[in-house]
Amino acid sequence: DIQMTQSPPSLSASVGDRVTITCRASQSISTYLNWYQQKPGEAPKLLVYYASTLQSGVPSRFSGSGSGTDFTLTISSLQPEDFATYYCQQSSSTVLTFGGGTKVEIK
Amino acid sequence: EVQLLESGGGLVQPGGSLRLSCAASGFIFNNYAMHWVRQGPGKGLEWVSGISGSGGSTNYADSGKGRFTISRDNSKNTLFLEMNSLRVEDTAVYYCAKRHLDKANWFFDLWGRGTLVTVSS
Q1: Quick one: closest CA in A to B115, which residue?
Q2: From A43, A45, A91, residue closest to B106, measured CB to CB
């Protein structure tokens, strides 16, 4: 199976900060990489697919980049509603795998 | 309204069985592949299983292979997950998720609220 490694596992940031989360695949996955946001007690929500395509309705402060094995999710100016856990997910293989998550907390 | 609603979770002893259901509404159910994703207490997301729109193709994570069976009833817009030989480590919230129509990139654009399965003696 393709292993997905996210870093950091958690981070503390302030409103207005620029935040970058990294996701690394154990082998090349082209751009078959998707990002989700999950708030406590809620289901995950799709943010980005194909590494860089923003899902409809997602604010433009979110952006994704990367291809091959290294990917990033960036929040250009962190807002109060962005404090959550973020997961990457690969679909290069039909055995889908998620990263371990990155929890974004208030500083 | 476009939504997914899971049910069937509960407390079961190790070695027991449970059948989860997911009722879909607001979209043409048989056009979409459907999946189950779970999340253990305080843990990350883990993909469990998926099924094509027709029901003719299924796949499973190794953790459930041979123990879990995914199926669907398109006449009732309902997805199922039959779980047998349950283990303590199967304890999780189980989410039903609708896969986007894209055939190359499998990702989920609609999720249910989840149903909690607790395996404990």
Answers
A1: A43
A2: A91
Return the structure tokens found at B62: 């190794």
- pLDDT of amino acid A44: 97
Q: If pLDDT is split at 50, 70 and 90, which confidence band does A67 have? A: very high
| Segments of chain B with pLDDT less than 50 | none
At residue A107, the pLDDT reads 86
Q: Is B114 on the interface with A (CB under 8 A)?
A: yes
Q: Is A36 on the interface with B (CB under 8 A)?
A: yes
Which pLDDT value is given to residue B103? Answer: 84
For residue B102, the model assigns a pLDDT of 85
Other C-beta atoms lying within 10 Å of the C-beta of residue A107: 10
pLDDT given at position B116: 98
Judging contacts by C-beta atoms under 8 Å, the chain B residues touching residue A44 are 37, 45, 95, 108, 111
Look up residue B80 and give its amino acid.
Answer: F
**Closest residue in A to B113 (Cα–Cα):** A43
Residue closest to A16 by CA, chosen among A85, A103, A75, A86? A75
Answer yes or no: are the C-beta atoms of B79 and B22 closer than 8 Å. yes
